[in-house]
C-alpha cells in the first residue's frame, strides 16, 4: 500500500565483460496472492557504466509513470569462472602450486574471509525426462552456491546432454550447500524442472 516503496535490497550478479548484457528490471503490483499487474520496465546498459565505482541511477519506467532509484556497481569478478573442460584452471601445475601456497597452514589467518574455492566439472546428464511433445528436452544446468549462480549452455533436443564445463566458485561459508538443477528451456516461458541434486560442502 505504497506509491513510494523502499526495498533496500542488494543483489549480486556475475557479469563477464566479453558479453553485451542489458540489466532488465520489472516492477509489479500485487493485489492478492493470485492477481499481479506489471507497473513498468526499465533497462540498464551495463557496458556504458563506469567500472569500479558505485553509480546512482534514477531510471524512468517505460510507458508508465514513476521511476526507480538504484545503486549499481560494476566491480571485477574475483574467484568466479566458467571454462571448457580442456582448459580447466586446476589443470595448470603452476596454478596448483600457487593455490597450495595460498591455503597452506602458515597463511591461514592472512585473509579470514578467503576460505577457499570450489571447482565443479559438469560433464553430462543421462536419461533425462522428456519435456517436449517430440519426446526430447532442451536441457541446461544451473549451479547455485550461497549467493552465486552460474549455468551451462543449452543442449537442444537431447535426453543425454554433454556440457563439459568447469565452474569455479569462491567459498564464503563452509556450511553452504551446492545445488545443481537441470531445467528444460521452453522459449519465452519459464523453464521446466527436470531434476535437482544438493551437495553439502562438508560432504566433499
From TrEMBL:
Residues 1-59, 93-204 form the C2 domain. GO terms for molecular function: calcium ion binding. It is found in: Membrane. InterPro entries: C2_dom, C2_domain_sf. Pfam families: C2. Coiled coil: none annotated. Keywords: Calcium, Membrane, Metal-binding, Repeat, Transmembrane, Transmembrane helix. GO terms for cellular component: synaptic vesicle membrane. It is a multi-pass membrane protein. Gene3D superfamilies: C2 domain (2.60.40.150). PROSITE patterns: C2. This is MCTP2 protein. It comes from Struthidea cinerea.
Amino acid at each position: 500500500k505504497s506509491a513510494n516503496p523502499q526495498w533496500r535490497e542488494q543483489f549480486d550478479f556475475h557479469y563477464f565483460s566479453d558479453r553485451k548484457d542489458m540489466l532488465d528490471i520489472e516492477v509489479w503490483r500485487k493485489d492478492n496472492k493470485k492477481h499481479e499487474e506489471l507497473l513498468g520496465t526499465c533497462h540498464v546498459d551495463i557496458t556504458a557504466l563506469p567500472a569500479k565505482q558505485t553509480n546512482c541511477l534514477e531510471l524512468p519506467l517505460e510507458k508508465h509513470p514513476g521511476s526507480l532509484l538504484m545503486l549499481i556497481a560494476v566491480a571485477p569478478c574475483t574467484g568466479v569462472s566458467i571454462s571448457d573442460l580442456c582448459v580447466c584452471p586446476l589443470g595448470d601445475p603452476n596454478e596448483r602450486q600457487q593455490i597450495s601456497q595460498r591455503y597452506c597452514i602458515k597463511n591461514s589467518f592472512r585473509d579470514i574471509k578467503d576460505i577457499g574455492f570450489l571447482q565443479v566439472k559438469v560433464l553430462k546428464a543421462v536419461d533425462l525426462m522428456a519435456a517436449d511433445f517430440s519426446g526430447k528436452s532442451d536441457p541446461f544446468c544451473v549451479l547455485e552456491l550461497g549467493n552465486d549462480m552460474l549455468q551451462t549452455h543449452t543442449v537442444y533436443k537431447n535426453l543425454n546432454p554433454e556440457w563439459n564445463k568447469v565452474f569455479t566458485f569462491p567459498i564464503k561459508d563452509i556450511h553452504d550447500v551446492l545445488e545443481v538443477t537441470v531445467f528444460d528451456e521452453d522459449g519465452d516461458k519459464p523453464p521446466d524442472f527436470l531434476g535437482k541434486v544438493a551437495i553439502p560442502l562438508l560432504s566433499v
